Protein: 2-dehydro-3-deoxy-6-phosphogalactonate aldolase
Amino acid sequence: MRHLIAILRGVEPAEAADMARGIVDAGISMIEVPLNSPEPLKSIASMVEAVGDRAQLGAGTVLTTKEVGEVQAAGGTFIVSPNCDTQVIRCTKTLGMGSYPGVLTPTECFEALKAGADALKLFPAGMAGTGGMKAMRAILPAGTLLYAVGGAEPSNFAQWKDASADGFGLGSSLFKPGMSVADVTANAKASVEAYDEVYGG
Structure:
């Protein structure tokens, strides 16, 4: 499995299904719709209907337990947050969903893991830098999945891999509001090719 999450911040419900098809066809099987997008739950439901048999659909920028329930009701199967909120993590796991909280310090990492997080999202990764990730990895339990999000893109996958990144959340390097499906699909393909080259696809 490629540890890549496509982040579609600002996607519109009317284009969501076609965007999802293009991304999944390109080889990315996890797609996140941040909740500060236009009608995000509609977009998630549309994507679930279009590619739910081939991909995992979830939400990002999830800040409350109420939102976790709303995402599940829309068909989402995983939750991504910009922060480490143990209540959100526990609620996510109680509902049987994947949990990907944002962390930036060792304290947040261990709190997230204790609460049941499936993987950690180093965010903003550009702020921590590759040196920060290496230092973090040295104290994390063996087998902890660590994603670089915010500053990671195909051109620097190799540097992040050297810093021990297991995967990436891809935002503006993959999707910006106003892009065509063809553009986003091309970006997804380029991301997959870069990932496979670095990690051995």
